[in-house]
Amino acid sequence: MTETDVERRLRGALSARAAAVTVRDLRPAPAPSGSARRSRVTRWWLPLTAGLAAAAVSIMAFALLRPVGPAPAPPVSPASPVSPASSPAISPSASPSASPSASPSVSPPAPSRSPATVGSTPASSPSAQTVAPTPR
Amino acid sequence: MIFVLPMPLSLLRRWRGTAAGPVVTEAPAAPAIDELYRERRLPLVRLAVLMVDDLPTAEDIVQDVFTRLYRRHGTGLGAVADPNAYLVSAVMNAARSALRRRRIARAYLPPRPEPAPAAEDEALLGAGDRDVIRALGRLTTRQRQVVVLRYWSGLSEQEIAGALRITAGTVKSTAHRALTLLRAQLEEK
Which of A92, B85, B100, B162 is most enclosed, with most CB atoms within 10 A? Predict the structure, then answer.
């Protein structure tokens, strides 16, 4: 079988197979410009609508899920003293030589004080006198 | 303060149409793509049938190709240098994708018995033609593309190379290999 014979058979078979498809076999289909026009015209608002919907959902979620109660209290400062003996308010009176008009900012360093020292001179502290309730 | 919003072109065209009022309009010329569709639909469906051997799939392929062409270039087709070559190339690519999908589906589905040929095909195709078509189905997709474009569409090697985006040398070697396989299969009969 020569190559020309194969080509001839090939051409004949392809032509016969293609001729088996006629216009009547095709399903009725509209031209693409008619079928696709509507979808192209009505599609411009889709991104806009999607954006608005997303924004509305975000706003609703924020409004619904927002915490309604009071704001949480600020954290306690870690340097707050616990015992009155080590309070900075007493510190100006820790030394007997300090004057009552001395500013509390000039307090001596806390580690140098001892509770025994403070307790030994309670009357020398002006702040202790001010705080103590006076009977009437 | 004036805000200028981006108005969609479709609304702009509609607004212009209504603002212009009733004017004497000529009968609009049929878009180029519609004429092309009327002229080329049947040959392209035949081309796709020769590739996928299935009329409904071939019709889907051609319809998808025309729809994509319209969405990309509109009705004028002024940007397309050669619409016919574009369509042939698009149909070939779509047929190749359809054959690939079919091959993947067959790999995952249980084998089905070979469907009996339609009575019309039996009447129109002789036994020799059916053998050739069956042997054509055993070729690779690329070989089938080259054979169909060469022996049915009558394209030259250069045109086939342009449509399939391969070199002319590849077209020549692919066609030679396809003919060798076809000859071997037809001699076995």
Answer: A92
Given a cut of 90, is residue A72 above it in pLDDT?
A: no
Contact call for B182 and A6, based on CB within 8 A: yes
A84-126 tens-digit pLDDT: 555 455 444 444 444 444 444 444 454 544 444 444 444 444 4
Measured in angstroms, the CA of A68 and the nearest CA of chain B are apart by: 38
HSE-up of residue B112 (Cα within 13 Å, Cβ side): 7
Query: Chain B partners of A47 at a C-beta cutoff of 8 Å?
Result: none
Candidate CATH numbers 1.10.10.10, 1.25.40.10, 3.20.20.70, 3.90.780.10; the one for domain B123-189: 1.10.10.10
Per-residue pLDDT tens over the stretch B50-67? 999 889 999 999 999 999
Question: CB contact, 8 Å: B142 with chain A?
Answer: no
ipTM of the complex model: 0.75
CB contact under 8 A, B63 and A29: yes
